[in-house]
Amino acid sequence: MSTKSATKVAPLADRVVIKPLEDAETMRGGLYIPDTAKEKPQQGEIVAVGPGRFEDGKRIPLDVQVGNRVLYGKYSGTEVTVEGDSLLILRETDILAIINS
User: What residue numbers bound the domain in which 42 lies?
Assistant: First the structure.
């Protein structure tokens, strides 16, 4: 079962596409922290999900869905840029938790 999304990227199997949520500009001791020195965000919003993985000949749907805010591993997935948007493609197993609002 594939979920429609606003992005033109359609992940395969148990992969998801995440738009990382950027933290607000922070200052420490009155100094601006340049983008190159900032830590990578570890949370984002799912913008597309794959149909699920096959197990014993049956497709197992994903536990996450488009619109979920999630936490993921610091160095998980592959960063891609599609139509100017920075996205992250990773497997469902790389997602650590769903953030409930």
Answer: 15-22+33-99
* Residue 57 reports pLDDT greater than 60: yes
Are 74 and 95 in contact by the 8 Å Cβ rule? The answer is: no
Domain count, the chain: 1
Could you tell me the pTM of the whole model?
Answer: 0.77
Confidence bin at 59 (pLDDT 50/70/90)? very high
Q: Phi then psi for 92, rounded to 5 degrees?
A: -60, -30
Helix (H) or strand (E) holding 32: strand 31-32
- CA–CA dist 95, 1 (Å, integer): 19
Domain with 72 in it: what CATH number? Answer: 2.30.33.40
